[in-house]
Specification:
Elements lengths: L1 E6 L4 E10 L2 E11 L1 H5 L6 H23 L8 E7 L3 H18 L3 E5 H7 L12 E6 L4 E8 L2 E7 L5 H11 L6 H9 L24 H13 L5 H30 L3 E5 L6 H13 L3 E3 L11 H12 L17 H5 L1
Parallel strand pairs: 1-4, 4-5, 6-9, 9-10
Antiparallel strand pairs: 1-2, 2-3, 6-7, 7-8
Helix pairs in contact: 2-3, 4-10, 5-6, 5-7, 5-8, 6-8, 8-9
Length: 341
């Protein structure tokens, strides 16, 4: 089975080919074109600009992936495309192209939930652990904990009630005069910083639930920065390390709590923030002390990519799960709806 994956939900244009043969799967080819440099001067993603970039790049990437894999269109069993959630214009570019290519080549188009792609992304590099397991999904716009009972069976345990962790990274970086995207910029600067210098809050850390809140942390950073008459480079470095430590401590603590409450011995992490080295180290260290096994995708599969979209579609096909005949791009698409179908 050969599945072409297409991802255009935000500011990465991606195409990939996933092949399943004799019960084993592998990535035949994948390409990702990032728009970070395009949007950096605006301090964030501009939806209209992102859509036009997808429109120009996607046909080229898809063709390159097909050539790299050495496959013809007649050898494809389907085109998996991110149908939501995401930026509406960006999603429309990907879904319209996938529908057109599928129609011309007489193959099915498979709409995939972007978050399901992230939830299953660790399976791209390693076998998924036995169900059920807990996944921390943390990206630019999402921070949530999910119990995965099986393919297509997801129970949301907790989510952010305001800013996501990635948004907190971006807004804190802006306050420190760092470029977009903020997560990698803060992580790089924090390498030589003192994370204990600033006593930043750990919002909702001691509340007996699995929800998150990062707007208070962002506000605390803003007040701390505004109180300084002149912020030298070391002070900025220490603040970056303090921000990173606060965010990571909350994410790790809540994730381990979710495993304990559900009785799960396996914890997966996915999403762009999952590439953060401090977060990965803390998760591996503290989960080991709690008897929990951590499963991490490669950093390049934490951020948006098309391999996870093709993989999610392939796993659904393997389980005999139906794809809707009538569907459209959806900027908002609750994850719980997948379990209902």
């Amino acid at each position: 089975m050969n599945i072409l994956g297409i991802e255009t939900s935000c500011d990465e244009t991606a195409a990939a080919l996933w092949q399943t043969m004799d019960g084993k799967g592998r990535i035949l080819a994948e390409k990702v074109a990032s728009q970070i440099d395009t949007h950096a001067r605006f301090g964030g993603v501009v939806p209209e600009v992102a859509s036009r970039e997808h429109l120009a790049v996607l046909p080229i990437l898809a063709q390159q992936v097909m050539q790299q894999a050495g496959l013809t269109w007649s050898e494809l069993d389907g085109i998996a495309v991110t149908a939501g959630p995401g930026l509406m214009g960006a999603l429309l570019v990907g879904t319209a192209w996938a529908r057109g290519a599928a129609c011309v080549n007489n193959i099915p188009v498979l709409p995939v939930h972007h978050m399901e792609g992230h939830l299953l992304a660790p399976g791209l590099d390693h076998e998924l652990p036995p169900f059920p397991f807990v996944t921390l999904l943390v990206s630019g716009g999402h921070t949530l904990l999910v119990r995965v009972d099986g393919i297509g069976r997801y129970v949301q345990l907790g989510q952010t009630i305001d800013d996501a962790a990635g948004e907190c990274f971006d807004k804190s970086a802006r306050l420190l005069g760092l470029p977009y995207p903020g997560g990698p910029a803060i992580a790089k600067l924090a390498e030589n910083g003192d994370a204990k210098r600033f006593a930043l809050p750990r919002p909702m850390l001691n509340r007996d639930n699995l929800d998150f809140s990062f707007s208070g942390l962002k506000t605390a950073v803003m007040y701390a920065v505004h109180k300084m008459d002149d912020m030298d480079e070391q002070t900025r470095t220490d603040m970056a390390a303090s921000v990173e430590a606060a965010i990571c401590e909350v994410l790790v603590s809540k994730s381990i709590r979710a495993c304990r409450q559900t009785g799960s011995k396996h914890l997966l992490i996915a999403g762009g923030v999952a590439a953060n080295r401090t977060l990965r180290h803390l998760l591996e260290t503290q989960s080991e002390n709690s008897g929990i096994s951590v499963h991490l995708p490669r950093p390049e599969h934490c951020t948006d990519n098309a391999a996870m979209i093709a993989y999610a579609a392939a796993k659904r096909l393997e389980k005999g799960l139906a794809f809707p005949d009538k569907w459209d791009a959806r900027p908002r698409w609750p994850l719980e709806e997948l379990s209902k179908t």
